[in-house]
Structures are given as C-alpha cells and as structure tokens.
Amino acid sequence: MQQENKTRISAAGIARRGDTFFTALRKPGTSIGESWEFPGGKNRIGESAEQTLVREFQEEFKADIIVKSKFFQGYFTNKHIDYTLQAWEIKILTADDHLVLTEHQCTAWKTIEELKACKMAESDRQILQALLSFEKTSI
After folding, report:
1. pLDDT tens digits for the chain (139 residues)?
2. In what order do the strands lie in the sheet with 65-78?
3. What domains are defined for the chain?
C-alpha cells in the first residue's frame, strides 16, 4: 500500500500526570542521542498515527497505551525527509516499574519548567511550545 502523501508522519505520545509529562532520555549514539523526548516514532507505510504510537510504546517500553486525541500538528525535516509531526494525548496503562527500556536510558515525569531546561530535538521543542499554549487544558 502506497502513501498518497510523500510526507511521513512522526507521532509523539503525550501522557500527563498532574502537572508532569512522561518523557524519556534517548541512549547515546544517534543524532538525537542523550536528548529528552516525548516518546513515539515514525509511521510505517499504511500505518495510522494511532497504530504507530501503540507499536512504538510496545517496542520501546513494552507498554500498553490508550491513544486519545490529537492536539498538535507541526512539521520538520530530518535527513532530507519531510515529516508531519503529530502529538497525541495518551494514557499509559503499564506501571512505571514494569517499563522495559529498549531505546532509552531512563524515563521521568517532568514539568514544563523542567523540560524547558532539557536538551531536546527541535521536533520535541515544537510539542513543548504547544503544551505551553495548552497548559490549562485536559492534556
């Protein structure tokens, strides 16, 4: 199945606990290594953003999630490929102490103020900016 649009989707899952958000610190060795991120990933051909998030959270954390609603869309380019960035509100069903980290050094629930001081990829900074706008919403 071919994608109609050549732009790929990169989906991020945003889980909130009080005034904190679920984040993960990437392992070193990649262009975004040792950066904090809102976890998720790039879609596979024919895969919806929701399916991408479910798959990525399983692959990266062995975590079950519920994908709720999309609250942000932006754009970025990585290695000459254009991406549509989507941030989705999610609920993580797996307890923190049962997460299995395959792509990350650690996870943390961080406030927006804490995240402002963290090293993050530009795409995650876009989401952080959107969270600043939506700070008082249900996200």
Report:
1. 444 456 789 999 999 999 999 999 999 987 778 999 999 999 998 999 999 999 999 999 999 999 999 999 999 988 888 999 999 999 999 999 999 999 999 999 999 999 999 999 999 999 999 998 876 555 5
2. 40-42, 8-14, 81-92, 65-78
3. 8-133 (3.90.79.10)
